Amino acid sequence: xxxxxxxxxxxxxxxxxxxxxxxxxxxxxxxxxxxxxxxxxxxxxxxxxxxxxxxxxxxxxxxxxxxxxxxxxxxxxxxxxxxxxxxxxxxxxxxxxxxxxxxxxxxxxxxxxxxxxxxxxxxxxxxxxxxxxxxxxxxxxxxxxxxxxxxxxxxxxxxxxxxxxxxxxxxxxxxxxxxxxxxxxxxxxxxxxxxxxxxxxxxxxxxxxxxxxxxxxxxxxxxxxxxxxxxxxxxxxxxxxxxxxxxxxxxxxxxxxxxxxxxxxxxxxxxxxxxxxxxxxxxxxxxxxxxxxxxxxxxxxxxxxxxxxxxxxxxxxxxxxxxxxxxxxxxxxxxxxxxxxxxxxxxxxxxxxxxxxxxxxxxxxxxxxxxxxxxxxxxxxxxxxxxxxxxxxxxxxxxxxxxxxxxxxxxxxxxxxxxxxxxxxxxxxxxxxxxxxxxxxxxxxxxxxxxxxxxxxxxxxxxxxxxxxxxxxxxxxxxx
Amino acid sequence: xxxxxxxxxxxxxxxxxxxxxxxxxxxxxxxxxxxxxxxxxxxxxxxxxxxxxxxxxxxxxxxxxxxxxxxxxxxxxxxxxxxxxxxxxxxxxxxxxxxxxxxxxxxxxxxxxxxxxxxxxxxxxxxxxxxxxxxxxxxxxxxxxxxxxxxxxxxxxxxxxxxxxxxxxxxxxxxxxxxxxxxxxxxxxxxxxxxxxxxxxxxxxxxxxxxx
Lengths: 480, 212
Hints:
The complex is a heterodimer of chains A (about 475) and B (about 210). Chain A folds into two domains: about 5-20 and about 75-385 and about 465-475, TIM Barrel; about 390-420, no CATH class. Chain A has 18 helices and 18 strands. Chain A has helices at about 20-40, 45-55, 70-75, 125-135, 155-170, 180-195, 195-200, 220-230, 250-275, 305-315, 330-350, 365-385, 390-395, 395-400, 410-415, 430-435, 445-455, 465-475; strands at about 5, 40, 55-60, 65, 80-85, 90-95, 100, 110, 120, 175, 205-210, 215-220, 235-240, 280, 320, 350-355, 360, 365. In chain A, the strands form five sheets. A five-stranded mixed beta sheet of chain A has the order 1-7-16-15-14. In chain A, strands 3-4-2-12 form a four-stranded mixed beta sheet. Chain B is an alpha/beta fold and about 210 residues long. Chain B has nine helices and five strands, in the order H-H-H-H-E-H-E-H-E-H-E-H-E-H. Chain B has helices at about 5-15, 15-30, 35-55, 60-75, 105-115, 130-140, 155-165, 185-190, 200-210; strands at about 90-95, 120-125, 145, 175-180, 195. A five-stranded parallel beta sheet of chain B has the order 2-1-3-4-5, sandwiched between helices. Chain B starts with a helix and ends with a helix. The interface of A and B includes residues 409, 431 and 432 of A.
């Protein structure tokens, strides 16, 4: 499993920073001022009650002004790192610091069918195949459902998604649900797999992604999920989607401030509900609406990195996005945007990096694109390793022994060490002639073939029959 | 019945110790050194060559196989082989042309040719046309292999071929060329008999060229 790690040991791996600590502090103070002075709307009574009881001021029915002290207090109880286990309860992901883990996104409406090239509505089988691929790919660390299945009952599509994830990978899964009841059922399923409520809480192998209307307007479903999951001790990421130019001023700093005011409001609530509840910050900030196309771009350079810096400044784990593209095809733009975004997140040290394999700004998914991202991540894993400059790695004795006239290709030192260097699986290095002999295929063609090979060969460790049946029973009888 | 498949598999794994002991057991069973060489070692190296061309093997692994094979030949088989038993696949003169010091690829080809049963004379790098001519005469060579990595030294290949022709040896030797800037077109232009883009195809070409 990949553990790309930016700057874990001082200067032993590359790292980058976009916001200075002073800028982060200024941004933090701005968020506090918004919460205290402007306030946020919360459309859930329990949230209002909890905040009021803690000292917040509620006016106009549901407009809440949160004192800075409550935010400061929340930071003293929230965990600074979140461990996610695999389906068997073994720790797999330690989100926090500069450790980066990568996974897919959720709910694409379309798929670029790798067998036919057709652009079509996605179905349940696409999720099964996508998650199987996630299970097999070495550099994909967690799974999200990737697609919205158009061929199942739509109001309980999220139950089908959760079941498909649980059945087809042992890696940690992050779920998204439409309604609150969907989150309750997803937790029920996870508890069945973990062997009980306490077992899941102790070794969570799942987390919930919660979308919030905007930083200043918190919808009922988001708040219900936040309170329920905090109480259960299940990790969650709480993501207001402030749109620069629409629901927040268009400048990056202002959009960040509005968005993160909402994130801090969620943090306060989670800790008021249960001190110590795990909480993950969004790792992108400064969204904008593309004023030419009204699309919300995923690979926007200006929304990248500063939110990860801000999370580092606050000492919190982050949930960011990369490996995604606005392109409609698995083409040059898709490869370039995937590589650039994965590279920045690895370099800045985003923790849980999702949306790997997305096309069309989050509306379309592609299995070959996911495989290409896996290759990019393999490259990045090698790149992000520090350089070993030790007496052993310098091998001065060997240099002297072989001298200017000898050669190293058949030396014991080479034999012992050559495999430690990185070799591509999909990126082509062969000479023109050899490449021609292999069929003159481009990266997209090679990735497509690789998808077919994996789907034909990879066997996922199945859930025990009775567990799988009990999980399926929830799909059959969903919570209303 | 000797287990040639086991010898072949062990050679491909590059496990020298095991290969030595398998060859020794085969000899103890009364299998002839010639048969072990041809049906075991050579057959194994053929597969290694194919795997290398298909990018199924790393070069150091290939060299490990070659090294294991040489160890068996030198330590066990050589004293038992009659002069006529090992008819070399062919005699090869190989070197990097005058003005060019690059020899990694060329050495690789030399080692691979050797393990494919050729008798190889590796002259080194920066070799004058006259030196090639002298060695071809002296060793009665079947194939001349030339390498160049620089576009500036490529013309020396033509100069060398001309020198070979002038010495009246052009009918005796086939000429193979290789190196990053070299191509099939260039080979035809300068009157070489063949071009190989990598060590694996060089072995294939050498075997093929010997049958012409």
